Amino acid sequence: MSEFNYKVKVFYEDTDAGGVVYYANYLKFFERARTEAIAEIGLSNNKLLKDFGILIIVKSCNIDYKKTAKLEDHLEIKSIITSISNTSFKMMQKAFRDKELLTSCEIHLVTVEKNGKPTRIPDELRKKIQDN
Fold first, then answer.
1. Is residue 37 very low, low, confident or very high in pLDDT (cuts 50, 70, 90)?
2. Rounded-to-integer distance, Cα 37 and Cα 89, Å
3. What CATH number has the domain spanning 3-121?
4. Every domain of the chain and the residues it spans
5. Cα(33)–Cα(6) distance, rounded to whole angstroms?
6. CB–CB of 88/111 below 8 Å?
7. How many Cβ atoms are within 10 Å of 114's Cβ, its own excluded?
8. Three-class DSSP category at 111
């Protein structure tokens, strides 16, 4: 499956008092990267809800902080789907500064109906995920 890339610049609001990226903000960077990956395959969260009645939610994530990013750093988030099942898929997301790995996250995502009940991944989404 394809790798999706997303670039982000670290702003003042992303940092803590020490001038480094606050640890929880990596999750925001990863969320933005996933949203852009969906757009890159021709879908959106709104379209998934409107056309298929589904949401993609985070079931779990395991994040490993290796090095810190700092104010005005330019980061690249690389995202790849590592496995897919009937109702969920897993991604590996990594944040790099240049080629230096800063943070990695294994994330388990589930497709659910509006009421929160897990549901099958729509064929169109599955096909686009697997073909990219």
1. very high
2. 14
3. 3.10.129.10
4. 3-121
5. 5
6. yes
7. 10
8. strand
Question: Which pLDDT band holds residue 131 (cuts at 50, 70, 90)?
Answer: confident
DSSP-assigned letter for residue 13: G
Contact 81, 1 (CB under 8 A): yes
Angle, nearest 10°, between helix axes 45-52 and 25-40? 60
Question: The whole model's pTM is what?
Answer: 0.93
Contacts of 56 (CB under 8 A, 6+ apart): 34, 38, 45, 48, 109, 110, 111, 112
The verdict on whether 51 is a catalytic residue reads: no
Residue labelled with tokens 């890339």: 5
- Residue 36 CA to residue 77 CA, distance in Å, equals 11
User: Catalytic one among 14, 16, 51, 98?
Assistant: 16
Question: Which two three-digit tokens encode residue 21?
Answer: 């990226």
Report pLDDT digits (tens) over 48-57: 999 999 999 9
- The residue written with tokens 């990013």 in the block is 69
Q: Where are the beta strands (DSSP E) in the chain?
A: 3-9, 54-65, 74-84, 88-97, 100-113
Q: Are 106 and 27 in contact (CB under 8 A)?
A: no
